[in-house]
Design a protein that fits this description.
Elements (H helix, E strand, L loop, with lengths): L10 H11 L7 E5 L6 H13 L14 H7 L6 E4 L8 H11 L9 E5 L7 H12 L5 E7 L7 H4 L3 E4 L5 H12 L3 H10 L4 H9 L1 H12 L7 H38 L9 H45 L11 H8 L4 H20 L4 H11 L2
Parallel strand pairs: 1-4, 1-5, 2-3, 3-4
Helix pairs in contact: 1-2, 2-3, 4-5, 7-8, 7-9, 8-9, 9-10, 10-12, 11-12, 11-15, 12-13, 12-14, 14-15
Length: 380
């Protein structure tokens, strides 16, 4: 299995990165941009694996099977550092640590590679810490920054990076990937890819988890029962609970695996009381997981609102008589009835209210429930 297999529906990007691994256009700094679900961090990871692949034949690099590819894809390679934040922003101290790491020569691979998955979550002062390291990099060091769009990164940084622009792949390509890699039944894969609006990670979760599919459908159907202020307040409360349940569901398995891995690394006894030194490390892990859980709820709430937005998107398509495929095709009759009760201008205003709520939740420290209640009231 090649490292490029995850980039289903991105042939131009794969070709650009393949050529770079052959030495054509390879530079010291890259900026991967694309909307959520486009696979920008997967593209950076695949590129890092291809650059440090053990294959001597350059045309075969990125095999996905050698030790280097496996450890990079598993994020355990000593020369490849992955940076993502579970907080609102990447701190300036974290940026300084990256600069220090980037100054080291690779220990076993061809390149020392720094992949910053949340480059848009750096304040200007923090980004400036990286500027000189990116402008005058250490030999054999490559920076890979990921962000939703070039505008999310300071111009002084993006002007020094080679751009890799990704788009959301067609739903059919996402479905084909789920069938090929995850063994999902084709009809279910198609429904999951469409419901996820081509977001590969979310499509995989919907395909694997029946409860996740039920939570999504419950969210999408909320506007059908929205008849007054009381219903709006109840909808807001339920939306926050759905987002919290979705975040907790995805975190529980990962938290348990991280704790088990740490205990195994520390050589902890299978039973009995842990030594004080081990208990302190477990406490630190649990504190980190709690901070991550808060960020996960915010991200999950944003995704829940995106699902809600898909309802009004379908309504608008019906109102305008557009032939574009519906996201929620299973609800076509309900959508058509709903569309007949209002004008396109009203639907656009409701979509704008949802997008404003998403922005407030992801960029400010507002109380999610109050924000969602205000949004829900404007949907009546």
């Amino acid at each position: 299995m090649s490292v490029w297999d995850d980039l289903q529906g991105q042939p131009a990007v794969v070709e650009q990165l393949r050529q770079a691994t052959l030495g054509e256009g390879l530079t010291h700094a890259w900026l991967f941009t694309g909307p959520p679900g486009s696979g920008r961090s997967n593209a950076a990871k695949a590129f890092a694996a291809a650059l440090n692949c053990d294959q001597e034949d350059v045309t075969r690099r990125g095999c996905g099977e050698c030790h280097a590819c496996q450890t990079i894809l598993g994020e355990t390679h000593s020369d490849v550092t992955f940076v993502r934040t579970e907080k609102v922003t990447i701190t300036i101290d974290e940026a300084r640590d990256l600069v220090s790491t980037a100054g080291n020569r690779p220990s076993s691979g061809r390149w020392r590679i720094i992949v910053v998955e949340d480059a848009d979550r750096m304040a200007e002062r923090t980004t400036n810490v990286l500027l000189k390291a990116i402008e005058e990099p250490t030999p054999r060091t490559i920076w890979m920054l990921c962000a939703p769009s070039p505008a999310d990164v300071l111009v002084t940084i993006r002007s020094r990076c080679r751009a890799v622009a990704l788009r959301l792949p067609p739903a059919a390509d996402v479905a084909a990937l789920l069938v090929k890699r995850d063994g999902v039944e084709p009809a279910l894969a198609e429904r999951a890819a469409r419901a996820a609006q081509s977001h590969v990670g979310i499509a995989r979760r919907l395909a694997r988890d029946p409860e996740a599919r039920e939570r999504r459908m419950e969210t999408v159907k909320f506007p059908l029962g929205l008849r007054g202020v009381t219903a709006a307040v109840m909808m807001a409360d339920k939306l926050v609970k759905i987002a919290t349940a979705e975040a907790n569901s995805s975190n529980e398995e990962r938290d348990a695996a991280e704790k088990a891995a740490l205990l195994a690394t520390l050589g902890a006894p299978e039973s009995g009381t842990l030594p004080p030194s081990m208990r302190s490390q477990i406490r630190q892990l649990e504190e980190d997981q709690k901070r991550r859980a808060k960020r996960s709820i915010t991200d999950s709430l944003d995704r829940t609102l995106t699902d809600l937005l898909s309802f009004y998107r379908d309504v608008l398509i019906i109102q305008l008589g557009n032939s574009v495929e519906l996201v929620n095709v299973e609800l076509r009759s309900e959508l058509e009835e709903f569309a007949g009760r209002s004008a396109p201008e009203t639907t656009l205003a409701r979509m704008d209210a949802i997008n404003k709520a998403r922005q407030r939740i992801t960029t400010t420290n507002v109380a999610p429930l109050l924000t969602i209640e205000s949004m829900a009231a404007s949907l009546i």
